[in-house]
Design a protein that fits this description.
By secondary structure, the chain is of the alpha+beta class. It has helices spanning 13-29, 40-46, 57-75, 92-99, 106-122, 129-138, 143-150, 153-169, 190-198; strands at residues 2-8, 31-37, 176-179, 182-185. A four-stranded mixed sheet has the order 2-1-3-4.
Length: 214
């Protein structure tokens, strides 16, 4: 099976909107979804994106409001009609719950989807251990064992390594899918990714002038 590298944050709206779709695509095209949950802000800010608090109201209302509503309707995915109450809470523990299960196969897929869904459908606090405990138990895991593993040095090191790998790969946001040498940023590129599975795109010949930095 071919690996599809999946960079995302555990609280990402657009990762949630594409979650079921990318998993179905992997099953259809015999891909292994390799989970790389990351701390999002350090990665995207390193690529030049503004922190959420410094973006304009028009930008926020469009990209983190209307676009979420429309894609949710198109993908038939339920979402709360507001920015989740605890969206700014630390979601490292939630990412650790995913990483505690490894980086691939069905239990990891299920945990990642459940965490994203709980946040965007049910307004769950991803920093709250009892909430994560209930999710783990609902998926048939021993919650105490999984929570302990999620907070282990090994898992923390993997989380940091994922961020480093994302920076090295030029990841600009969540979700980002990497198939071979091709990067697809955003769940709205899943149709392009599906086309690439069936028929790879012509290798890039594009050349840009160097970007001037101050």
């Amino acid at each position: 099976m071919t690996d599809l590298i999946y960079y995302y944050s555990a609280h990402s709206a657009f990762a949630y909107l594409g979650s079921a779709r990318v998993m179905a695509l992997c099953a259809q095209h015999n891909l292994t979804l390799v989970h790389r949950p990351i701390p999002l802000s350090p990665v995207v800010e390193a690529q030049g994106s503004l922190p959420f608090a410094k973006r304009t109201q028009a930008h926020v209302d469009y990209f983190f409001g209307r676009e979420i509503e429309r894609w949710a309707e198109l993908r038939e995915v339920p979402v709360v009609p507001f920015r989740p109450t605890y969206h700014d809470a630390d979601y490292a523990l939630a990412a650790g719950m995913i990483l505690a299960l490894g980086d691939r196969v069905a239990p990891v897929d299920a945990m990642a989807h459940a965490i994203l869904q709980a946040h965007w459908r049910d307004d769950a606090d991803l920093s709250d251990a009892p909430t994560l405990r209930a999710l783990a138990e609902g998926l048939g895991h021993d919650p105490d064992t999984l929570l302990a593993r999620a907070q282990s040095p090994d898992v923390s090191a993997t989380y940091r390594a994922n961020a480093d790998a994302a920076l090295h790969a030029g990841v600009m946001g969540s979700p980002t899918y990497v198939l071979g040498t091709e990067m697809f940023y955003g769940q709205d590129r899943l149709e392009m990714l599906e086309r690439a599975c069936a028929q790879p795109f012509t290798p890039t010949r594009w050349v840009n002038p160097p970007v001037e930095t101050t």
